[in-house]
Amino acid sequence: MKKLFFTSLLSLGMFLPSAANAQLEQGNVLIDVYYGFPNLYTTAFKTTYANSGQEVDLRVGGIGPLGGRIEYLLSDKIGFGVDVGYNNSTIQYTEVSTDPITGQPTTQYDYNFSTKKLGVIATFNYHFVQNEQLDAYAVIGGGYGNRSFKFESTDPNYQTEEISGIIPISGKIGVGMRYFFTDNIGANFAVGLGQGGVVNIGLSAKF
What we know:
Layout: H1 2-15, E1 29-37, H2 40-50, E2 56-73, E3 78-98, E4 105-130, E5 134-153, E6 161-164, E7 169-180, E8 185-194, E9 199-206
Antiparallel strand pairs: 1-2, 1-9, 2-3, 3-4, 4-5, 5-6, 5-7, 7-8, 8-9
């Protein structure tokens, strides 16, 4: 999914005209969609379980971080926005018990562990570089962010559990840039800590 997204983004940049006049000003609205990486929980699952050798039919996967941002420019340099982000991670495997004498399987149970996070934060952006095609900015934000965990199994002695985070908060700090191919359409790239992953890339629109 990520490879397809990045390939489409690069292809779009090659075919759109390069002459753009996307200078930002007070009252502009900017909309971004993005996909980030790494997915830390998915990476941790793969590292921990792939090397244990105790699970059968191990499957690890995840979506995101992905999300969208909308920003309103209060002035040529200062913008206020909302960032909505989502990610999840899953791990599924089977445990088989064998008879110690015959070595034949006796019981087989499936296990499924998943975690997901939804975040909605307010952001303040300071646009420190602007020209006809490039917009570079620093961002800081905070707000709601809830991560939940779910444990399931076909083992009749196993009780399904679903747990939510104790403190549902999320934050973000980083720097980003937008490069406009036309007056209104461009690509975005950002690095930072918090919602959106360490690195994220996507498409932008200006109105």
